[in-house]
Design a protein that fits this description.
Blueprint (H helix, E strand, L loop, with lengths): L13 E5 L4 H6 L10 H7 L20 E5 L13 H18 L3 E5 L1 H8 L7 E2 L9 E5 L10 H8 L1 H14 L2
Parallel strand pairs: 1-2, 1-3, 3-5
Antiparallel strand pairs: 4-5
């Protein structure tokens, strides 16, 4: 099964990075398309979007300043199906995308995604102290998968930090 298209452009507010597309996303060609995935609900309830979007509207989020990619492009049933080689290649490609597109924030949707990217295990939620890119800050949020055992309210609370960070960045840029 082919991977799904990234939604990227220069200077995004947030680039959301997942592990890899689900089989459902691979079938539909849209990010976070599995009906059990809570991504779209989380974005809305955290204040990142003005309404709850649907997976088939993922491309329109570029207009809000949000883009999508994955550390591995091949759709699988789960992250356990991703090979070591795919992670190595994916890390290189992701670093290249971040350097090229220079998003303000890179939000890793799942601690495991960030652990694979940084090759580190002790990762806190939220804004990371040492980004690999000089142009982008790195943020780690819980996975939106329905398999995650955290309460949805706790997940949404972590995502609520993102609009605050964006506002602070905007204020820094304008000198307010």
């Amino acid at each position: 099964m082919e991977g799904i298209a990234d939604h990227l452009r220069k200077n995004l507010d947030i680039l959301f990075v997942g592990f890899n597309p689900s089989i459902r996303s691979g079938e539909t060609g849209h990010h976070y398309a599995n009906p059990t995935n809570r991504f779209w609900k989380i974005l809305y309830e955290s204040g990142l979007t003005p309404r709850k979007f649907h997976p088939d509207e993922d491309l329109t989020l570029l207009d809000l300043g949000y883009g999508f990619t994955n550390i591995v492009s091949r759709p699988t049933k789960g992250a356990a199906d991703i090979t070591k080689e795919e992670y190595i290649d994916g890390r290189k490609q992701l670093k290249s995308k971040i350097e090229k597109y220079k998003p303000k924030l890179v939000c890793f949707v799942g601690k495991g995604v960030y652990q694979e990217y940084r090759q580190s295990r002790n990762i806190p939620w939220g804004l990371q102290e040492n980004s690999q890119s000089n142009a982008s800050m790195e943020f780690v949020a819980p996975s939106s998968s329905g398999l995650v055992r955290m309460k949805i309210e706790e997940i949404i609370e972590i995502y609520r930090e993102l609009p605050i960070l964006l506002k602070n960045l905007e204020n820094d840029e304008t000198g307010i």
